[in-house]
Structures are given as C-alpha cells and as structure tokens.
Amino acid sequence: LSCSCVGEENWEDSRTVYIGHKEPPPGAEAYIPQRYPDNHIVSSKYTFWNFIPKNLFEQFRRIANFYFLVIFLVQLIIDTPTSPITSGLPLFFVITVTAIKQGYEDWLRHKADCSINECPVDVVQQGKVVRTQSHKLRVGDIVVVREDETFPCDLIFLSSSRYDGICYVTTTSLDGESSHKTYYAVPDTMAFRTEQEVDSLHATIECEQPQPDLYKFVGRINIYKDKEEPISRTLGAENLLLRGATLKNTQHIYGIIMNTHFALLLRSKTNDSVVKIYKAVINTVLKYAWQWSPDRDEPWYNHRTEIERQRHVVIRAFTDFLAFMVLFNYIIPVSMYVTVEMQKFLGSYFITWDEEMFDEELGQGAQVNTSDLNEELGQVEYVFTDKTGTLTENNMEFIECCVDGNVYIPHAICNGQILSAASSIDMIDSSPGGYRREYEDLFFRALCLCHTVQVKEEETVDGIKRGIHQGRPTSFYISSSPDEVALVEGMKRLGYTYLRLKDNYMEILNKDDEIERFELLHVLNFDSVRRRMSVIVKSSSGEYLLFCKGADSSIFPRVVSGKVEQVKARVEQNAVEGLRTLCVAYRRLSASEYQVACRHLTEAKLALQDREQRLAQAYDIIERDLVLLGATAVEDRLQEKAADTIESLHKAGIKVWVLTGDKMETAAATCYASKLFRRSTQILELTKKRTEEQSLHDVLFELNRTVLRQCSISGLSVDCLDFGLIIDGATLSAILKSNQEGGGHGNYREVFLEICRNCSAVLCCRMAPLQKAQIVKLIKASKEHPITLAIGDGANDVSMILEAHVGIGIMGKEGRQAARNSDYAIPKFKHLKKMLLVHGHYYYIRIAELVQYFFYKNVCFIFPQFLYQFFCGFSQQPLYDTAYLTLYNISFTSLPILLYSLVEQHVTMETLKREPSLYRDIAKNSLLRWPVFLYWTCLGVFDAVIFFFGAYFLFDNTTFTSNGQMFGNWTFGSLVFTVLVFTVTLKLALDTHHWTWINHFVIWGSLLFYVIFSLLWGGIIWPFLNYQRMYYVFMQMLSSGPAWLSIILLITVSLLPDVIKKVLCRTVCPTATDLHPPVPYCGAVHHLHAFSVLQQNEFLIGPERQERSRKRR
Amino acid sequence: MMPTSYEDGHISVSGAGGGSMPGKKPENTAFKQQRLPAWQPVLTAGTVLPAFFIIGLIFIPIGIGLYVTSMNIKEFQIDYTGVDMSSPCYNCSQNFSWNSSRPCACSLPFYLDQPYDSNVFMYYGLSNFYQNHRRYVKSRDDSQLNGNQESLKDPSKECEPYAWSSSKPIAPCGAIANSMFNDTLELFYNDPNGSKVQIPLTATGIAWWTDKHVKFRNPGGNENLPAAFQGTTKPVNWHWPVYELDSDPENNGFINEDFIVWMRTAALPTFRKLYRIIQRKNNMVPTLPRGNYTLEVVYNYPVRSFDGRKRVILSTISWMGGKNPFLGIAYITVGSVCFLLGVVLLIIHHKYGSRNNIAT
C-alpha cells in the first residue's frame, strides 16, 4: 500500500491548513502554500505496464524461486544431463499461477480503488454545493456529507444539521465496532447552517502530520473574524471524522478536509519454515560427488566434440559441477514448496469449516487470517490470555453497590426478593436517615452522570444492540465500555434513570419521577494510566460538582473523607468473589475553584505539544480532595467451559498466563474460578505490596529458592507441586527496568524467568497493554525460545497478539480489532482447546510427516542416481528417463502425501480432546528434531542402496529374460524407478493411520497411474520427441519373471526396517499417543452424544488411568 | 496457495471484508468436519507377526527354486582379449590399427566338460567399456534410425562429433554406432575323429522384436538400400557402409540385429550382448556335446587402449534367464530373516504385549 506521507517533500512536525484555500488576513502569518497529495487512492501494487517485470522481480526475490531459476538457467546454458524442461516446467507453473493469483487480487484492488476514487462528493465552493469526484478533493476543501454516506477523507467536523453540533458515526469498516460514536463540531462553527455561512468561514487549522494511530489527533483551529485577534480552539480526536467511517442519524454535516490519504499499516508476519537445514545436506552431497568426479580420459569410442575439447579445464570442471548440481537438485524439488503451501492453504480450511468452533450466537465460526502458522498451533508452550472478554463473557451485570457502608442490591429492591447472595450482607438499609440520604442521592447521581454512555432512542439501531431491554422499549444505552452500561442499567433498576444528554444538559429521572437537569461542563475522560474518569457538572441549583469514578487504587489515595474503611472492606470482599469493583467519589467545587480547574483544562487542551502529558497534569490537579461516596460491584461471568479449557491446556503441558488490567483480587478470583489456580496450587506473590516490604532482590531470590527446593525434593516426578505466580505491573516494570540498567543487582530477568519456568500458572495483573507485549517478548526471547500464543479480544490485546508467535483474536464485544490483527480468530475462548489440541496437533503431525517424507522420498530418488555415477564414469548420466525425473515429484508421488497431510489422523479427534496430555508427545518440535530427521535420512539411504544394488546384482553380467536377449541402461533405470515409486508410496501407506476412501483412492490411484503412464509412455513412438529410448522398455521388463520377483523382493526389503522400527517402538517404548489406539469408528453414532459419553467415562475412570500411565513412564 | 503469496493473502483476507461479515454456518459434511469413515490399522507385533511368517514361508521356497534353476544353467566363458603373451590373440591385440585392411585372425581352443542340451546362447562380453557414459548414451539420432529421411541427411547435433564426415552426413550417426562391435566369432567343434565341424549360428532373434520391427527402420523400405543411403557416408570406424552389414535384406541396414543389439546401451561398464543363437537341432543329440572346440576370431575391435576385456560366453537359458544365483540367495536370505524376525517379535510380543494390555 502506498503511503501518501512518503511522497511529501517537506516533512514537517505540523501542518497548517487554510480553510477554503483563503489566505489569512495580512500580518497574521506568512502564507506558505503547502502541497498536499490529492485524494487519489492507490492501494494496488501494480499497473498494467509494470505488472510483469515487477511481479517477476517480487517472485524471484524469494530465495527458493531464485534457486530454481538458477538451476533452470544452468540447464539452459550448459549441456546438462536433464533437459531444461524438467525444472523449467514446474517453475513456470508455480510462477504463472502465483502471478495470475496476484494479478487477480491486484485487479480487484484496482477496481475497489476506482470505485472509491470515482465516488461523487459534494464540495462547497463559492457558497454553492458542487458535485465532484472523490479523487479531486484537496486538503482545505469544505465538503458536505449526508446521512449513511462514508467520509471520503479525514474531516474536521465544522457543523451538523443537528442543533447540538454533534453527529453519530459508525466505524464498522475501520475497526469493526458497530456502536455509534459521537463526534463534536468545533463550537465556534457549529452554528453554521448554510453553505454560504460555511464558506464565509475564515480560519486556519494547525495539526500534526498524519499519524498511523487512528485514534490520536491533536490540532488547533484559528478563526479570524474581521480584524480581531484570531480565536483559537483545540481540536481533538472527537472533532476528527475518519475516512471510511459512516455518518449515521444526522442529516448532513460540513467538514474541512484535513488529510487526504491515510496510511494503514498492515503487518505481515513471516515465519521461516523448517526446511532450511536441508540445503546444507545437498551441498555436502554435491561436494562429495564432485571429489569423485575425475575427468576420465576420452576413450576412442567416445570422443568429445572439438569445442568441448578446447575448453579450459577449470571451465570444464565448473560445468561438470553445475551438471551434478542439476542432477541432484531434486533433493529439494519445487514441488515441495508447492505442496507445503497447498497443505497450509487447504489445511486451514478445516479450521474455518469446523462446526464445533461455530458460535450460533455470533453466527460466526473460526477464521484463519494466516495459513502459514498452522503447525505452530501444535507447538505452543505458553498461552497468554486476556481476562476480560476472553476468559470471561464481558457481559457485565450490576450486582450491588455500597453507599457509605450500606449495601444495595437492585434485585432485592426491584423484585422485593432477597437473593441468596444477599443473605451474607449484614446491613441492608431500608430507611436511610437524612444525612445518609444526602450521600445516597449524590452516589446515585454520580453514577448517572459520570459516564460516557449514549442513549439510543430508536428501536431500529444498526448493529448489535448493546443495551438490555428494560422498562421502556425505545431506549438503549450504548457505550464503548460495558461496565458503564451495566452501571447505568443498574441505576435504572434502583430508580434513577439517565435520560439523555441534550444541549450539554444531562437529564435524570429520579425516584420520584422528576427530571433533574445537570449542565455538563467537562468530561475528564477515562484512560488506562489514571484508571478513573470524572465529570464536572453544574446542578440546577448552581452548584459545581465533580464526580469521579475509578479503580479503588486510584481513588483511595485521593480521598480525604468518607467511610473509607468500610467501603474498602466491602470492595475487597467483592474483589475476592471475582466482581469488578469501582469506587465513586465526589468533590464540591466553589466557583473560583471551578474557574481554576477550567483554566487548567483549557490550557492543556489547547496545547499543541505534549498535550497528553499536560492533560494528565491538569487532571491530577483537579481530581483531588475527594469525598468517598461508595463502591459498585459488577459481575463478569466466566465464559462457557473456560475452566475446562484451561484445565486441558494445563494437562497438555502448556503454561497459561493470564494478563489483565484488573486488580489482583478480582483477577485471582477469576483464576480460581477458571481452575488456573487449584486449591493445591501454592501461590507465589510478586506484588508491589511485597516489594515495598522487602527489596525486589530479596523477594525474587527467596521465591526462586522456594521453587527450586520444591523441585529438587520432588525429584524425578514430573508434576511437582504446582506453583502459581501472581505479579503486578509495577513489579514487572521494576524487573524489566533493573535489567536495562544492568548494574550489580544481578540479572533479575533471568531469576524471574527461572521462577516462571517452574510455575504452571502465572497471573499478571494491573498490566498496561504495552506491558502485555513486553511479557510475551520476554518469554519469547528466553533461552528455550518457546512458541508463544496470545489470545485476547480487545484493542488492548493487539500489541500482545502481534508480539506472540501465534496470535488469536476472540470475536468479542470489544470490537474486532483483536480479531483483525490476529492470525486466527475464534468466537469463544473454549474453542482454543480444539484449536490447539486437535487442529494444532494434527497440523503438526501432518506437516512434520510432509516435510520429512518429502526429504525421504527424494533421498530415495536421488541417491541411486548418485550411486550410478560410480558406474558410468561420473558422467552425470541420469539413471531415469526425463519423463520419470520430471513426473516423480509432480504426479507419481505428490498426491498421496498431499492428501495424507490434509486428512491424516493418527488418533481420533475424540481421543485428542479427551486426553490433552497427548499434546506433550509433540512438544518441543519432537517430530522434526535431528534424531528423527537422521532416521528418515538413513532409511532413505538404505532404501536407495537396496534399490540400486538390487538392480545391480540382477543385471550383473547376465540376462534375465527367457529368450536370452539383453536389457540396457534404461531398463535398469526403470526397474529401480518402479521399485522406488512403489516403496515410497507403500511407505506412506504404512504411515497412514487413517484410511479414508480418499487415501485409498490416491495411494492406489497413483500407483496405477504410474503403471499406466509407463505403459503408455513406452508403448508409442512419440513423434514430438527426438529420442525413443523408453520404447517398450517397461513392457519388456514386465515380460521377464525375475524382474517381477526382484521388484517384489526389493520392495519387501526396503519396507522391512521401517515396519520393524514401528513395531518395536510401539511395543517396547510406546509414547502416550501409541497407548491410545483409535476407537473403532462407527459412522452412525451421533458424535456430540458420543463425545459427552466419553467425557463422562473420563470423569469416572480417567484420573486413575492417567495415574497409571504416568507411573509407567 | 503458491509459495510467493503470503503477504498478499493477508491483504485480501482483511480487505475483502470477510472479517466482519457474519459467516455462514459451516456445512456438516463428513469431509469438512474431518470425520470421514476410516479404516485405522495399527501396526503392532500381533498384527505384523503373521505377515512375517507368511513372507518367510513364501520367500524361502521361491528362493530355493530360483537357486536350483540358476545352478542348473550351464555357462562357459572364454577371454580372448589377448593380454597375455601366451594368448593366441596377443599379436592381434598388439598390432591393432584402424586402417589396416588385412583382418587379423586368431583361434582359441577350449573344452566343454559337459554337454549343453537346450538352445545355447552365444554372447560377447566387454569390460570397462562405458556404454552408459552420458556423452555416449545420447550420441545417437533415433529419428534417423527410424528411417526419417530428413534426419538421414541432417543428423541431430547430439551425434557430434560423429555426425558429419568429409561434409557428408554419417548414417548411422553418433558415437554408439561408430563404435559398433565388429569382431567376427565362429565356433568349431573338434570331432574326436579329427574333423572340424562348424557349428551353425543363428543371427536373428537376438534383438527385441519391437526394436527390429518398429523402432529401427530403413529409409525407404528394405529394398535397394544403397540407393536409400546415397549421399551419406559410413561411420568413421566402420569397414563397410551400413547397407553391407548383411546379405539378407531383412537383416541389413538399420535393421541389422547385430547393430540393434549394439545400439541398446548397456547399464553397467561390464556387460554382455547376445551375439548368436545355437539352435537345438533334434532331441537326440545335445546342441553342444562334450568335447573340444575352437573359437575362430577375426580380431577387429580394440579394447587394450582403455584396459578393456573381451569375452565370449556360451550359456543355456532357463525361464529366469542366465546363470545368476543372486536372486535365489536373496530370496532365501530375506525369507529366513523374516522368519527369524517373526520369532523375535513373537517373543517380544509375549513379553511386552501382556504389559501393554494392563496399561491400556
């Protein structure tokens, strides 16, 4: 994608935009016309003219393609044993198909660009609305956008058809969030109604250059009126309408074009495949071959041509080397890349197709955004999960509130029933006194006012309906934070209904059905650093009130009065129960105090530089000396089967880390509920509270000692006592910081990692989004280089999802940002179990077999060729015919392994789900390690030796026909090749554990195809070939009895070692997977039912069996 | 799907809007849910055991049969290279020159200690002769050999440097044809009564039928070959042009069987090629009775320059071809190994199998 910013010559920190391209009044500032790109979108990569060269360049930048190109060129230039077609054809095929695919995608992009560029837009020019095309827009133009239209570029919102100067926008196409967001017009211009008025505006806008962060914008508008000093107003993200968003519920708006292009940074994640090591192998083989390739003298019967003889010996040696390379290049065939790609691409469909991962509620199944990570799903060692929305439903429900020590439960009051939970509450206040009454009123008003919830009045709201239908069917509450909705809903049930925000007045319907109006003066927005938000309102009686709501840790230090102890106790109790708590406080401001606060805020808001920081300072000054009112508790229920999933992951040997911004008690309670921590788990705490008592150093080393001691006591047993670690953000940053400083404190990072390694579960609470990514990075970079997986649902998890090897997004309630940035998106946390334990396991087994089998079959293929060089004077004479050389990897042996790698199931899905511990069998890349690889290589070499010398001894100076006629070298090659194809295919048949009709069809089909092809290939004098070397060779061979006998013998001998190895391994040292023989399949059984029965069985007999198998190990 | 397209995949997936559209429920088909009914065999000692015994039981008899058959075949070899001073062909092998018009002849006496009853096949064998050298193997023009007129006049450049001679196309071109074996071998039976009886040798039926009738064809039919080959020249090393290989028009030119046999390049540097067949005349008399024989050689073919050897082999043939004990021995060995492994596995199965059953 092209980034418009790059093209600009003068990169400046800020840009100045002249509205309507009018010069500012003289003397204000020098008018520097700036050049901005027009609104022409180019997201396509290629044009018609540069497609072929550019695409070819892109493709050959890949080392594999380039390698094959070199081989092909070598074959073209020098005289090589095989024709250039053998490598040129597959390469050409791959390149062409890729080019067509990329060309098609680019064409689609062109079309999309075109439709956007041609899209009509209304522009205000000279007080009139003129219709023009989107790509002709320039920065500074004033445009009119009507309801349900999409903003053609980034706009500063000047005025809307609504009198309150707001408009509603959905950003579905930007981040997938379908809720309506409110944007505010610049106050000075919001009164403009007509084109003329708008056009008369004389102003400049200063802002930063376009940034990749969608939600950050800092700017200032200077409005010139007559000859006065310009009026400055701040512009924030709330004034900036982003391109791509859609206008809703507003007839039309006027806006100034700020940025034409907006560059979205798309990431690409590349993972190196395991095949690299193989390169080294062929080089050695080549060198070895080269040493053995002396230039034999030419005997009288076989002279070189004159030109050949004149060549210098070095050139001859070099061409010989290249010729050998061509001959042996089949060890890494093009087809391997194609097959691996196809396997990954097609294999990923099984994830999307999986019915069990489909969520009826959302109407969505799993999505695969990257297909090249499938096998890593089987290698995950660490799972980092978000808590809210991932482990929990993120479906908040207001549970209770505690006002000044008195507990209110909405159900109890609404229904007149006391719920079971209420029985534990000691004080339920029914008749508050006057003093309390005041606090209560303030508390409820605080909750009704201190939020950013919008009221949706129509019933036909686009997108997901956020609010719960209650009372009046015509209003919904909509907010980006579900907590707030839950609170406002809860208030409604307690009798205080928030009605609407109208002309900066918030209206509340109180218990007595009276409407109270508060003027909203300022909103001090929530941010994750401050962890609180405030509003400043003016009551009808003229009082200035500041209501503040936030996490207990950020409220209590700022409280000067109120029943702190009681509320604190209640908050802690709630937190232990896993409820999300918020504290509410207020402060009465005098008029002068308000003025001061107002000044602070305005100054900070107007600042162009460091606005964030200055705002934070201003908030800090304003939000103090609070009076505590009370606390609220909101429940966030655990997701369905979250505990079961976590337990399975644990059994699979995966370490689960929960990273959350919540406070420790809440998070710990969730962790207990989700079985991350069990009753037997010994909890190690590494929190700020502890490090305040002791130094970080001492705490760390003490914990480390505890962990190590425990492990040394328990000795050999794998599962020593579980440890669970709880760490908070502050301590974590201290640990990370200490390392950066280096110094004499020792390396805390290592100690910390050591502790973490020995903990089965870690809970990190109070995490900032960036810290989540830091943790993932820390583990990723630790010395074992474990494969990490991050799963989350919200925008705050994106950094961690991007950082981890495998990122999984949950299509949750907090928008789709996580799902968009992830490699895989799943509807619910519980689907992770199947994703890893079943799909991941299968993909890993499949790709491991695929890669190694490919290597094996090509060793079998090429090694006889290599041996043959010893018997043909090192002349690079190919053993097999060209057709066999070309088709071996393309058609004779390709389909069985591809199908195997798509449908193989070494154990059944049910077994994998039932026995998560099977996942440990493939942990740490166990199937692609050197011993396994060596085994495959040895097997390949052994088989090759058998093929070659079997045929050699059969041919050795004798005949094996009954008419005494002799066979030549092509018969020799065909015999070897026939044995080869059969052995290699049957070897795969031996490895296949799951024989579906497809496997049968493909395996027997390709053998049959080979035979038919050979008969046909040798049965006709092919007119287009300049040689007829294969004519009747295959049939003559089959007419000889000993040929048949030796084929059978050689196949048997080649397969024998593998069969014995399989049987011995299974019998003598079985893996856990071997101990679970596939349950005979009965197709008629309804699977869900069968599964649930199995689960029950496991419940009854599972633990004992596991105990026993563990002991055996 | 193709190797070079990871990055684009990303864009198209997210850009096509597939991300936010509510998806359809996946179809509940056995394939898509990976639940195709399947046969799930497991290789255990128990299942493999019978196979091993069966293989053993089948292979050992086959091996014995093959071995016995091979042992019954009679084969006699005589080396006539003439490396030793004592060898009758020593002189011929020393005084070799391509240009000599006078052929050098030598005769080797030998004794067959047992009679050869059935048809006897007479081979010539060459050692250290790389017919499978790459430059050699491709040095031929199959379309010329198939009677193609254009290729006859303009041989393929694969034949270089044996394509043109004194600006005339060579027919047949190429290194293979040029180096055709041209010794003449004749066999005489020294009757105990003193007379020397020439043994009739059949020169046909030594090449593959398909080669003789389809792959190799004379240009313009088998009649009037000198005319057909007009404008071409003989290979450099040949004494006669291709149309004078034999007097029989059905065995002359490109379809001369000696030529066809030579053109089928051997797989290994030591090879033999069928030269003549000695047909059995009647059931009463053995084809080659016990006794003394003489091999008369017209020594044309030089092998000393590359340390080669020339042999003549007389062999009877069974259904499994010539004498080759390898296959029989291999079958017996593999059969016994399988049987032995079967026994070993049986022991292992009994030892471990019961334990496994408890565990699972």
UniProtKB/TrEMBL annotation, chain A:
Q: In what residue span(s) does the P-type ATPase N-terminal domain sit?
A: 33-87
What EC identifiers does the entry list? 7.6.2.1
Q: What is its main location?
A: membrane
Reactions listed under catalytic activity: a 1,2-diacyl-sn-glycero-3-phosphoethanolamine(out) + ATP + H2O = a 1,2-diacyl-sn-glycero-3-phosphoethanolamine(in) + ADP + phosphate + H(+); ATP + H2O + phospholipidSide 1 = ADP + phosphate + phospholipidSide 2; a 1,2-diacyl-sn-glycero-3-phospho-L-serine(out) + ATP + H2O = a 1,2-diacyl-sn-glycero-3-phospho-L-serine(in) + ADP + phosphate + H(+)
User: What PROSITE patterns does the record tag this protein with?
Assistant: ATPASE_E1_E2
Gene Ontology MF terms in the entry = ATP binding; ATP hydrolysis activity; ATPase-coupled intramembrane lipid transporter activity; magnesium ion binding
User: Per UniProt, where does Mg(2+) bind?
Assistant: D386, T388, D793, D797
Read off the Gene3D superfamilies from this record: Calcium-transporting ATPase, cytoplasmic domain N, Calcium-transporting ATPase, cytoplasmic transduction domain A, HAD superfamily/HAD-like
What's the name of the protein?
A: Phospholipid-transporting ATPase
Please give the organism.
Nothobranchius furzeri (Turquoise killifish)
Gene symbol of the encoding locus: ATP11A
TrEMBL record, chain B:
* InterPro entries listed in its UniProt record: CDC50/LEM3_fam
Per the record, membrane topology reads: Multi-pass membrane protein
Taxonomic superkingdom: Eukaryota
**Mind telling me which residue stretches traverse the membrane in this protein?**
48-68, 326-348
**GO cellular component term, pick one:** Golgi apparatus
> Segment Disordered: which positions?
1-27
Q: Name one Pfam family in it.
A: CDC50
GO BP term, example = phospholipid translocation
* Keyword tags: Cell membrane, Cytoplasmic vesicle, Disulfide bond, Glycoprotein, Golgi apparatus, Lipid transport, Membrane, Transmembrane, Transmembrane helix, Transport
- Location(s), subcellular: Apical cell membrane; Cytoplasmic vesicle, Secretory vesicle membrane; Golgi apparatus; Membrane
Family, similarity comment? Belongs to the CDC50/LEM3 family.
Protein name in the entry: Cell cycle control protein
Please name the source species.
Nothobranchius furzeri (Turquoise killifish)
Q: Report the gene name.
A: TMEM30A
